[in-house]
Design brief:
With 400 residues, the chain is of the alpha/beta class. Helix content is 40%, strand content 14%. It has 14 helices and 14 strands. Bound molecules: pyridoxal-5'-phosphate.
Length: 400
């Protein structure tokens, strides 16, 4: 009898974590390494949010709460959805978990049976296909084209749908490409979905507030109200309010699905941290000006990084609408040899040699389902980004 489960055997270790770990090891050896591989804002949690958490501790809000979120937070989330997305949810249609990741996981575990298919547009956030497999479903990867800004098209979506399709996972702005779907592009997808009533939509809106140049964020249940009864609108405070460590994510959706997710959570983690929930209430109901200030800093960094990468021999980089990632192609670097003697045949070779020789950690595109690319997270200080881009430029110039 095998000790480890079959569910675990279906899962790959996270490549993002592996690269970040290698960067740590090199640092521990005394090497000067810049890690642009992790997906979290470099900014601090806003002071008003920290103070709300301290006050919650002071009041003794340190006990179990309702399993899928306390009333005050659910109400704040309903208000957020109404205010920012034009979506009308009642508190019973809200689920709060320990991060957006747990929200997605609860929904998949609560709904997937063997043979159920989940459409995952590539390039994808690394966790989607593995979570689907772990929950017993089958990910159906639909690969976007660089010429479409890596976006899922209506034709590709239509072709991927079968009678076994249970979910489409939709993510805009995207991790890893930063691509955002405007209303017209999203409408083309929701029109397809309206013809296939068995397909539910898991909309991962985690990067909603990280959008630039006047890009107007929109989400499927808002664009097509006819889809609301089969859409789970997922969001969280991790990225928008620099609260990755607090572990609060949430979703709005149909009541039966929310109840099923509550059942999963009540038998696993019980409830998200009570103190973090009070912090999230403050994040969602307190002053919001921090969102615009930080988005402006990210836009500035994005522009600097895109310009610098397009100046690197063998790399080309699109300008994405949002998130804090760029996803340049390294096609022009393949088939060459680095100054340190490494043969560059794949994007993984590129990322490995870049880390070992130039001390810059990026994540290779194969991890996200589309090569030959690398993902660079520009959630770092301007001077750090400038240093990293200079190193990448020198590394590329050294390829022969
Ligand atoms: C696209 C996407 N969805 C969800 C998450 C999970 O966020 P959380 O920290 O709230 O679990 C991440 C985090 O990297 C992400 O990139």
């Amino acid at each position: 009898m095998a000790f480890l489960s079959e569910a675990l055997a279906r899962v790959n270790p996270s490549p993002t974590v592996a690269i970040t770990q290698r960067a740590r090891e090199l640092r521990a050896e005394g090497r000067d390494v810049i890690a642009l591989s992790a997906g979290e804002p470099d900014f601090d949690t806003p002071e008003n949010v920290k103070r709300a958490a301290v006050a919650a501790i002071g009041r003794g809000e340190t006990k179990y709460t309702a399993p899928d979120g306390m009333t005050e937070l659910k109400q704040a989330i309903c208000d957020k959805f109404a205010r920012e997305n034009g979506l009308s949810y009642a508190p019973a249609q809200i689920s709060v978990s320990s991060g957006g990741k747990q929200v997605l996981w609860n929904a998949l575990l609560a709904t997937l049976n063997p043979g159920d298919e989940v459409i995952v547009p590539a390039p994808y956030w690394v966790s989607y296909p593995d979570m689907v497999r772990m929950a017993g479903g089958t990910p159906v990867i639909v690969t976007g084209e660089e010429r479409d800004g890596f976006r899922l098209t209506a034709g590709a979506l239509e072709a991927a749908i079968t009678p076994r399709t249970k979910w489409l996972i939709f993510n805009s702005p995207s991790n890893p490409t930063g691509a955002g779907y405007d209303r017209a592009t999203l409408c083309a997808l929701t029109n397809v979905l309206m013809r296939h009533p068995q397909v539910h939509v898991m909309s991962d809106d985690m990067y909603e507030h990280l959008a630039y140049d006047g890009f107007t964020f929109c989400t499927p249940a808002e664009v097509e109200p006819g889809l609301a009864e089969r859409t789970l609108t997922v969001n969280g405070v991790s990225k928008a309010y620099a609260m990755t460590g607090w572990r609060i994510g949430y979703a709005g959706g149909p009541e039966p699905l929310i109840a099923a997710m509550r059942k999963v959570q009540s038998q696993t983690t019980t409830n998200p941290c009570s103190i973090s929930q009070w912090a999230a209430v403050e994040a969602l109901t307190g002053p919001q000006d921090v969102l615009a200030t930080r988005a402006e800093a990210f836009r500035r960094r994005r522009d600097a990084v895109v310009a610098a990468l397009n100046d690197c021999a063998g790399m080309t980089c699109q300008t994405p609408e949002g998130a804090f990632y760029v996803y340049p192609s390294v096609a022009g670097c393949l088939g060459r040899t680095s100054a340190g003697g490494a043969r560059i045949e794949t994007d993984e070779d590129f990322a490995t040699a870049l880390l070992e020789e130039a001390g810059v950690a990026l994540v290779f595109g194969a991890a996200f389902g589309l090569s030959p690319h690398v993902r660079l997270s520009y959630a770092a200080a301007d001077d750090v980004l400038a240093d990293a881009c200079n190193r990448i430029r020198a590394f590329c110039a050294g390829l022969t």
